[in-house]
Specification:
Order of helices and strands: EHEHEHEHEHEHEHEEEEEEEHHE
Mean pLDDT: 96
Strand order of the largest sheet: 14-13-12-11-7-10-9-8-15
Distance between the termini: 30 Å
Structural class: alpha/beta
Helix content: 25-40%
Number of helices: 9
Strand content: 15-25%
Shape: globular
Length: about 350
């Protein structure tokens, strides 16, 4: 079986189109962008003949099986429903949506359409996550005890629609690794805002805080994920990643982008010593190229932890194999809702808010 895929949004999407072209289970690839010049430039460079001027035009065409949306956040909820109602499978960049009502609507749309929806969360297909997963599976972390996530990124100069954007609405990159490793969901959250946005940063997206810091209580065991998100008014270079701690070891994200991760392992208790010794090692995770078709392995050297070919392969494989994708609508809602609730907590001065259970961990 071979499927035909439409890639919509050629800023970020230009990185995905050639992966779809190379995938052994993909036939035709089409591209769409609101900027005709960019559509032409990307299509010409990649040798893509099928080009559409808009999502509406693409969905009106016959014979296309799936759509990958890489459009601005404010369009995700509406466009995903539009794609699913057209009878196509849909992949979408994060976040799934920015309101709990839209999360419910997208779950209903997937159920009604009986088509696959996948939120293309890069963090849980990154080289770093695969290494953390192997440490946990091999027992080197011991029992999970704590998680930490950070996403510090200055959005000055970004398109107008990012002004005032609530940082916690984009929490999935920093939080989803914790939920995936612990195989659980967030039960409740307390979040506080720091640095109220100045007038030049308030925009169409909101008037909250430049930085939001949250404690997410995970369901089941007594586990907490501590996540800090910042998009404005924080004088710090880019940092986006996660750290995981167990009672026998840990893996920490580098404090400077591009640096090595730090792996820690507790040593046996020595007679006469206070505390256990800890070994430290710099780690450059190799990822998991063996999980991919050979023709996709060269794409693992790219950014976002080499996650892009894994995301494409999971989305395409789920369709070809007639199964749910790893991050289907309920899982995506499970990973997205905590950020929506966290922002509401920040606006209410840090009150504890329960997070809905979507039935997927």
């Amino acid at each position: 079986m071979s499927i035909d895929v439409i890639v919509v949004g050629l800023g970020f999407g230009a990185d995905f189109a050639p992966i779809y072209q190379a995938h052994p289970d993909v036939g035709r690839v089409a591209v769409v962008d609101a900027d005709p010049a960019r559509t032409a430039a990307v299509a010409d460079r990649l040798g893509i003949d099928h080009r559409f001027a808009s999502l509406d035009e693409a969905l009106a065409a016959d014979g296309w099986d799936a759509v990958h949306l890489l459009t601005p956040v404010r369009f995700h909820a509406e466009q995903v429903q539009q794609v699913l109602k057209s009878g196509r499978h849909c992949a979408s960049a994060v976040p799934m949506a920015t309101t709990l009502e839209d999360l419910d609507a997208l779950i209903a749309a997937q159920d009604d359409a009986r088509r696959n929806y996948m939120m293309m969360e890069t963090a849980v297909y990154s080289r770093e996550f695969f290494h953390a997963r192997s440490l946990l599976d091999d027992g080197h972390l011991g029992q999970l005890s704590y998680f930490k996530g950070d996403h510090l990124q200055n959005l000055d100069g970004f398109p107008e629609y990012w002004r005032g954007y609530p940082p916690m609405h984009y929490v999935t990159h920093a939080l989803s690794p914790a939920l995936a490793l612990a195989n659980t969901r967030v039960e409740s959250v307390r979040c506080v805002g720091s640095s109220r946005l100045t007038p030049d940063h308030v925009g169409v997206a909101g008037d909250g805080f430049g930085t939001e810091a949250a404690l997410f209580k995970l369901a089941g065991d007594d586990l907490v994920a501590n996540v800090t998100m910042s998009f404005f008014q924080l004088g710090r270079s880019y940092l986006e990643g996660f750290s995981v701690y167990g009672d026998e070891g840990a893996l920490e994200w580098p404090q400077l982008e591009g640096g090595p991760m730090k792996e820690f392992r507790m040593q046996p208790m020595a007679d006469g010593r206070r505390g256990r010794a800890v070994s430290e090692a710099d780690i450059e995770p190799a990822g998991a190229p063996d999980l991919l078709p050979e023709v996709l392995r060269p794409f693992t050297g790219g950014g976002h932890g080499g996650s892009h070919p894994h995301l494409v392969h999971e989305f395409v494989s789920s369709i070809v194999q007639d199964r749910k994708p790893r991050v289907d609508a309920r899982t995506a809602a499970t990973w997205t809702a905590p950020g929506i609730c966290a922002h509401q907590s920040a606006l209410q001065g840090g009150v504890e808010i329960e997070v809905p259970d979507y039935g997927a961990h």
